[in-house]
Write a structure and sequence with these properties.
Blueprint: H1 3-34, E1 36-47, E2 51-62, E3 68-79, E4 82-94, E5 98-109, H2 115-123, E6 126-138, E7 143-155
Antiparallel strand pairs: 1-2, 2-5, 3-4, 3-6, 6-7
Length: about 160
């Protein structure tokens, strides 16, 4: 084979690999960037003298045409603007144009809260906010991309 033809073939192969990697990276990042985390439901499952337990239903929606695998969702839980805890969902896979829903319980200890937050819980009218980050592996798992989110639910 002529050296010049070999060099052109190598350059063309490299261009195809670079273009393919660029597309894969862009498609993976777009899928994670466009994903949405929603707090779908909140239930007050227990109200005691020193604590309350909330059942949270969180949905991760993937509107893109690309599957997302090994997605990690981590968040802080705020109740009436007061930090009450945190949570996470490790290694979540969400199919293209699909969603995954996870349930979790959050125990809120009154000793750490203001009287206004305790009163809101006792009256059954409050806002629960999740603020956090969605992080996923991109480019065949060689790197990660993260996107912050905030979602809320009005309990009444």
């Amino acid at each position: 084979m002529h050296p010049r033809i070999a060099m052109v073939a190598v350059a063309a192969a490299a261009a195809v690999v670079i273009a393919g990697s660029g597309y894969t990276y862009y498609a993976d990042v777009s899928a994670i960037r466009d994903s949405q985390v929603q707090l779908e439901n909140v239930r007050l499952t227990s109200l005691r003298l020193t604590q309350a337990t909330l059942a949270l239903q969180v949905t991760v929606d993937n509107p893109s045409g690309r599957d997302i695998s090994d997605l990690t969702v981590s968040f802080d839980i705020l109740l009436a603007d007061a930090f009450v805890g945190n949570g996470s969902f490790p290694a979540l896979s969400v199919p293209a144009h699909g969603q995954r829903t996870r349930d979790l319980n959050a125990t809120v200890y009154f000793a750490q809260l203001s009287s206004a937050v305790i009163s809101a819980l006792q009256q059954g009218r409050f806002v629960v906010v999740l603020r956090g980050t969605v992080e996923g592996r991109v480019l065949l798992g060689l790197t990660t991309f993260s996107q912050s989110f905030s979602t809320s639910y009005v309990f009444s």
